[in-house]
Amino acid sequence: MTITGQPVHRRLGMTDEEYESVVGILGRDPLPAELAMYSVMWSEHCSYKSSRAHLRRFPTQAPWVVVGPGENAGVVDLGDGWLAALRIESHNHPSFVEPYQGAATGVGGILRDVFTMGARPIALWDQIRFGPLDDPKNRYLFGGVVAGIAGYGNAVGVPTVGGEIEFDPTYAGNPLVNVMCLGILRQEQLVLGTAGEPGNVAVLLGKATGRDGIGGASVLASASFDDGSQEKRPSVQVGDPFEEKKLIEACLEIFEAGLVAGIQDLGAAGLACAISEPAGRAGVGMDVDLDSVHVRELGMTAPELLMSESQERMMAFVTPANVESVLAIADKWEIDSAVVGTVKAGGTLTVRHGGETVAELPAASLADDAPLYDRPYSRPDWLDDLWEIPEPSSIEPVDALLQLLDDPAIGSSAWVHEQYDHMLFLNTLSGPGGDGSLLRIRGTTKGLAVSTDGNGRLCLLDPRRGAARLVYESALNVAMTGARPMAVVDNLNFGNPEKPEVMWQFRESVEGISEACEALGIPVVGGNVSFYNETDGADIHPTPVVGLLGLADPIPTHLPGLSRANAGLEIWEVGPEATGNLAGSAFQRVVEGAHRGRPTAPQPEAAKEVIELAAALAHQVLVLHDISTGGLAVTVAEICIASGVGAELWVQPDASLFSEDPHRFVVMLEPGTVTLPGGVARRIGTVGGDSLEIGGHKVGLDLLTNTYREAIPHRMRG
Amino acid sequence: MRTAVVVFPGTNCEHDVVHALRSLGGEAELVWHRETDLGDFDGVIIPGGFAHGDYLRTGAIARFSPVMSEVERMAAKGAPVLGICNGFQVLCEAGMLPGALIANRDLAFICRFVEVEVTDVSTILTRSAEIGQRIRIPLNSYEGNWVDPGSGARMVLRYVDNPNGSQGSAAAISNAAGNVVGVMPHPERASDELLGSADGLVLLESFLHSLVPA
Question: Within an 8 Å CB–CB cutoff, is residue B194 touching chain A?
């Protein structure tokens, strides 16, 4: 995709109209460094120019919201002086170009977003999607991404406690790598991304700046892929978890000592963003001297210095009296630091390099004057065909169940999560492999529950219903640990927004998430939009990913677990009865090779009742498990496999067994211990034996277990 | 009686170890790797993590940190010195324990519970345990595969089902005197039933019981 003979602004990913806007703001043609700054700050990735108008739809208010969307991370109040900071980000395109480094730097970036708020990052979740594993290219990408997450996350010392894996041909040319981070802090430690008062000093902390990642936000993250995409490898950054670990500890020590007025991480758009955003937020200007920036290569030009996305860097804004103390802490933790600028009144950002002024522009214009596009949208005409009700297929329950358990997205994730340190900090009460994760806050009765959920196949068939159901599913997942839903972050992965069908999918998804959040009374506190997930003209399925935080207070004394079933327990199904609708289900994908129908609509009132019931039951029963991918059959099989005990289900072996209709979960309890409300709960079986029997069809536990455990390993052996 | 928990840049299990020791009534303090006087301490734990990034061999840079000569001095006078995971790697690099830790047999990071069996109860890690006692405890390492061409080590804990190829299924080894021990799985991660196991407490209690006034 090398474009030669084009004006510089087009090579930087800017349109002619956007260039004219810059000329209008400055009253002259921009200097090279100025053009570089506008090109990255006005990129889709940084400016949300195609999505901003729609993101306003999200409900963002709640009494417990401390910091909503627009800062580096959302912050909510957990009570008793504790706050939680959360954020989700994508690193899709870098991970396709260079899977290990792409995934690794995604982890590094999200950590900085969270600790820049003053929070200690306590856990990570990874949402990763690839093409099918029978293609060696997809095995390479999957293995590389998992290794990158492990290599960075383990070494930086933040546990990766959950996530989701999905395989579908739609991601073969464009894998999705989303990562969510949760941090906790005391309320007095909260720091914002502001430059503060005139006179404050800008201190650049961390790794020396190099030429890696130049244009990552614009050239890589905000453009589609084609055959020449490997040429974009130099736009991928290289991660150094050791530097990040030292940077985290140094920054937390600086925050604890109350030494900064504000701080901003250097991620997408690098220095250009880290000087302009905090100045814009504070309504001030800044003098920046690029000659002071510590570099690891000689001869870097001003545009390169401003656009570089070298990792593991933070920009702290410090009163002059505190500069020495900040530099001393940096020195103790053996990280580099440099005073690179001074905050001034008036809103003008002045950048000097080699003794010359290379940029002089209104700081706020980089963020506030970014273009805003109301792109056309229209419902795809192919959707009506997809919605035609498919012929009911005959169901062979044992065969279907075994095929589903052998699916790498459903089978055991141990191959993945055993490569991640998921136990560090001694907080992980419910880790990978269950529904929601649960982390305790030591010294309190509080637990933080998180679930991350996406489903591109569901959202292709009905983006509004699909996206809403993700929120309800996440909420039910956290309820499995005794938590009530509190706040949502979302990562909206879509194709090319210049296509009206993609824009319609985006709008519908935003609407679905908004409706579900409103029904549950929870705010969206942050998010990320990833457009241009398109290769050679083919867009990915619309894939919004939801990360939902819940609070359990108190934590259940005996947490229910999938491995706690034993012979003699009653099995109950709770929630609306399944309709047998298989639209967008794993059964369609794995067993039928189909993808059609219209997914069942969510039922807000039923959802609320079921979520509340589950959160209460988490304090009373041995086993709780959400019914989702693969339906009731897979849900019960997973419990049997984890507990090493069989079960008998008294249900019809029909489509309802594999339906993924929402708001349902399975409970296993000692007879006579808990009374479930009759209207919403049905006794469906009993635990015992060494096989799973479903309406007269029987399969041995050993076969189920081996099939489940080998789903990923046998494929990765090639 | 005080335990120094050594922190190199890149160490990440230090707070977990301090928390677990304190939950047992032990007194533990973090000590930065530039410290050159451990005179106020009666024992040392080098916790897990990635000391100095571990970009060379694991522990290869950490052995040159200023604190290490003090750790050696304390070991020489018989004080308990325990290396957990990365700490085990550091003690091998420093020559305080025999052998070396190389990449796991399957060339993948392993983070999961494993079962180990106590094979020696006269060390600072196992004096409160019993021979043959089985302990369920998390492993969390990429270079956890212990090899020792000289085979001169005392085996302290043995994997029941060798997960990483370690020679003789060694999960923990000791010097001849029994006061310097390296353990690859993490006792502090098995210190609370809420976390899935409290089996590691007997190992930390052994360490605390081994402390004698300096």
Answer: yes
Query: How many interchain CB pairs under 8 A, A with B?
Result: 78
Strands (E), A59-207: 65-67, 74-79, 82-90, 120-130, 160-167, 176-186, 201-206
Q: Which helix (H) or strand (E) holds A139?
A: helix A136-156
The DSSP string of A205-272 is EESPB-STTTTIIIIITTS-B-GGGGGGGGGS----HHHHHHHHHHHHHHHHTT--SEEEE-BTBHHH
Q: Is B111 a catalytic residue?
A: no
pLDDT of residue A393: 72
Is the pLDDT score of A221 beyond 70? no
Whether the Cβ atoms of residue A232 and residue A144 lie closer than 8 Å to each other:
no
Closest residue to A423, CB basis, from B52, B54, B140: B140
CA nearest B139 in A: which residue? A421
The arithmetic mean of pLDDT across residues A8-17, rounded, is: 91
Confidence (pTM): 0.95
Q: Is A421 in contact with B111 (Cβ distance < 8 A)?
A: yes
Residues 6+ apart with CB under 8 A from A289: A340, A341, A352, A353
What is d(CA B185, CA A421) in angstroms, rounded to the nearest whole number?
Answer: 12
Q: Alpha helix locations (H) across chain B?
A: 14-23, 67-76, 86-93, 201-210
Interior angle at CA A297, CA A291 and CA A302, nearest 5: 40
Mean of pLDDT over chain A: 94
pLDDT of residue A685: 98
Residue A126 Cα, gap to closest chain B Cα (Å): 16
Q: Give residue-wise pLDDT tens across range B36-49.
A: 999 999 999 999 99
Options B13, B52, B70, B85, the catalytic residue: B85
Tell me the shortest Cα–Cα distance from B157 to chain A, in angstroms: 21
Is B115 assigned a catalytic role?
Answer: no
Beta carbons of A245 and B108 less than 8 Å apart? no
Which residues have C-beta within 8 Å of that of residue A192, sequence separation ≥ 6? A67, A71, A117, A262, A281
pLDDT for residue A231 is more than 60:
no
For A150, the closest chain B residue by CA position comes to: B109
Phi and psi angles of residue A569, each rounded to the nearest 5 degrees, phi first:
-70, 145
Judged against a pLDDT cut of 80, whether residue A332 lies above it is answered with yes
Contact at CB, B192 and A440, closer than 8 angstroms: no
If one counts every other C-beta atom within 10 angstroms of the C-beta of residue B35, the result is 16
Name the burial class of residue A688, with classes exposed (0-12), middle (13-18) and buried (19+) by CB atoms within 10 angstroms of its CB. Answer: middle
Residue of higher predicted confidence among A27 and A5: A27
ipTM of the complex: 0.96
* CA-derived radius of gyration, chain A: 25
* Identity of residue A534: E
Does the distance separating the beta carbons of A157 and B195 come in below 8 Å?
Answer: no
Q: What pLDDT shows up at residue A538?
A: 94
CA atoms within 13 A on the CB side of A536: 6
At residue A75, the pLDDT reads 98
pLDDT in tens, A118-166: 999 999 999 999 999 999 999 999 999 999 999 999 999 999 999 999 9
b/e code A38-63 from CB counts within 10 Å (16+ = b): bbbbbbbbbbbbbbeebbeebbbebe
> Quick one: pLDDT at residue B83?
98
pLDDT of residue A1: 35
Shortest Cα distance, chain B CAs vs residue A603, angstroms? 35
Cis ω for the linkage preceding A500 (within 30 of 0): no
With CA atoms as reference, report the closest residue to A530 among A566, A473, A504, A491: A491
